[in-house]
Specification:
It is a single chain. Helix content is 69%, strand content 0%. By secondary structure, it is mainly α. The chain has one domain (2-195): Four Helix Bundle (Hemerythrin (Met), subunit A) (Up-down Bundle), CATH 1.20.120.
C-alpha cells in the first residue's frame, strides 16, 4: 500500500541525492551492498537488545533501497540484473532483521521466535506470489502488508519496545495480504482461461470442419456418373 502510494514520491524527493551519489562515482550495486551491510549490523543490534539502535538501523536500511533506483537511472545501467540483485538483497535483509527480532524475543519465551518465523514465512509467500504472478503475465501488487509496511511496523515495535504486539498485527495483516493476492491472481487466471477456451471442440480425427447434419445424405451431385451398359443385347 505504501509502496504504491508513497514510494514514487519519496524517490522523486531523494532524486537530487541520487544524482549527487552518481556524480561521486557510487553505483546502484554499491548502494545495495551498503544496505545489506546495514541490515547485518541492525540485526546484531536488535538481537543484543539495543532496540533504539535497531530502530535507527531499520531506517538506514531503507535509504539505499530508495536511492539505488535513482542512481541506476542516472548511470543508464538500470536493467534486469540490478533489479534481480536488489530484490534478492531485500529478501536477505528481511531475513536478517526478523532473525534478530527472533533472537531477542527468545529470552522472553521459547515460542515467540515461532511467531516471528511465521511473519517472515508469510512475507516471503506474498513476495513469491507477486513474482510468480508477474512471470505468468498477471498482476499481484498491493495489499495491506508489503515490505514498506513491515518496516514501519517493525520500527514502531523497536522504538516503543512493543515487538510482540507488532508481530501479531503483522502476522494478521500479512496473512490477509497473502489471501488477497491469491484470490486476485486466481480470478485473473480464470478469466484468461475462459477467453482462451475455444467455442467448440474440434471434430473427431483432428478435423476442424463441422460434421454433416444428422439425417442428411452427403451431396454427390458433383461426382462423375459412370455410363450404364444395358443388359439387353444390341442396346447400349
Amino acid at each position: 500500500m505504501l509502496d504504491g502510494r508513497w514510494r514514487a514520491k519519496a524517490e522523486r524527493a531523494l532524486d537530487p541525492v541520487g544524482k549527487t551519489l552518481y556524480r561521486a562515482g557510487i553505483s546502484a550495486d554499491v548502494l545495495t551492498v551498503v544496505g545489506l551491510l546495514i541490515a547485518v549490523a541492525t540485526a546484531i543490534a536488535i538481537a543484543s537488545g539495543h532496540l533504539l539502535l535497531g530502530f535507527v538501523g531499520v531506517i538506514l536500511t531503507g535509504l539505499p533501497d530508495l536511492l539505488d533506483g535513482s542512481v541506476a537511472r542516472y548511470s543508464g545501467k538500470a536493467g534486469p540484473r540490478g533489479a534481480f540483485f536488489d530484490s534478492v538483497s531485500d529478501r536477505v535483509a528481511d531475513a536478517l532483521l526478523f532473525g534478530g527480532v527472533a533472537w531477542y524475543l527468545a529470552d522472553e519465551s521459547e515460542y515467540l521466535p515461532v511467531l516471528v518465523l511465521a511473519v517472515l514465512a508469510l512475507s516471503m509467500l506474498i513476495t513469491y506470489e507477486r513474482a510468480r504472478a508477474e512471470s505468468l503475465g498477471f498482476s499481484a501488487r498491493g495489499g495491506l502488508m508489503e515490505r514498506a509496511e513491515r518496516m514501519v511496523f517493525l520500527s514502531i515495535g523497536l522504538l516503543f519496545d512493543i515487538l510482540v504486539p507488532m508481530m501479531w498485527i503483522m502476522l494478521a495483516l500479512t496473512a490477509v495480504t497473502a489471501v488477497h493476492r491469491f484470490v486476485m491472481v486466481w480470478r485473473q487466471a480464470t478469466i484468461a482461461a475462459a477467453v482462451a477456451e475455444p467455442d467448440a471442440p474440434p471434430a473427431p480425427g483432428g478435423s476442424s470442419l463441422p460434421p454433416a447434419p444428422e439425417g442428411r445424405a452427403t451431396d454427390d451431385r458433383r461426382r462423375p456418373r459412370s455410363r450404364r451398359i444395358s443388359r439387353v443385347p444390341g442396346r447400349r
